[in-house]
Amino acid sequence: MQQRQLGPFTVSAIGLGCMNLSHAYGVPPPPEQGERVLLAALDAGVTLFDTAALYGFGANETLVGKVLAKHRSRFTLASKCGMQGVDVAGDGKLVRVIDGRPATIKATCEASLRRLQTDVIDLYYLHRWDKKVPIEDSVGALSELVRAGKIRAIGLSEVSSATLRRAHAVHPISAVQTEYSLWTRNPEIAVLQACRELGAALVAFSPVARGFLCGAAIDVNALEAKDIRRSMPRFAPDNHAANLKLLPAYHAIAQEAGCTPAQLALAWLLHQGEHIIPIPGTTRVAHLQDDLGAAHVTLSADVLARLQALINQNTVSGARYNAQSASEVDTENF
After folding, report:
1. Residue 326 to residues 214, 233, 330: CA-CA distances in angstroms?
2. pLDDT > 90 in the chain, percent
3. What ranges do the domains of the chain cover?
4. What's the predicted TM-score (pTM) here?
5. Count of CB atoms within 10 A of residue 17's CB?
């Protein structure tokens, strides 16, 4: 596996986003299936595993801790705070809450350490900037966790270049995690360059466009009720139908390049800069192996240019988030 730099860490060029094993795309797989995926990734040379307090309201951290704690020295562990499940109504039902207050960040970290069965989290992200709290205050709390030896490095998720620079003035930011793929180009506006200037990695989530660029066309009508794609404008019937028209030419380019559609999407990302690290997620070992094969795909300048022209912010129909979700991020217009 190729290696890339992520702050003070050297990690595999392709990491594993663990969210899918507990969260977001309908009913999660049984824990034993998640264990197989995690161990297969480790055995294949993946050294960056990404989870969060939010995913499964702690279930994903618990799974990662149970399966990987005994292999802790073999990988870089990333998790996130600032967005988690909270029993707001006192009825035992957890709801997603964004809370970047210093006390909450520190309490969340302690809970994550217990679930992950570790003494220290290598890379700890602020999952969302809580706009009611100055970014300097939230990053200040994370800096205190570094000094206390609870975490080793600080990351931010879904922030603008301006917010990144404000945060970096308080404490060095090792990584920015945001959605980046052929069909989501927001980081190209400014964050990608800001990361390069500040020496931060750009960790790309949803690098295969939430499954859209994986090969088989997604049947939106067959998505499970709790699948988050049901609320995303790009998967609304009219937009999805328009986007499907991009796939035949895309698949033809993949065939010409001698790789699978998912590998093409990931290889394109790897070619955009040495500081970019995609973290595809999957629930299947076969898909994991397919994704990791992208590290060995070399794309010509001609293929890169054709991909850029085929799938981009002007050819894709629909926004990436609905209005509510868009209001919670700091990256839509930066």
Report:
1. 25, 11, 8
2. 97
3. 3-327
4. 0.97
5. 24
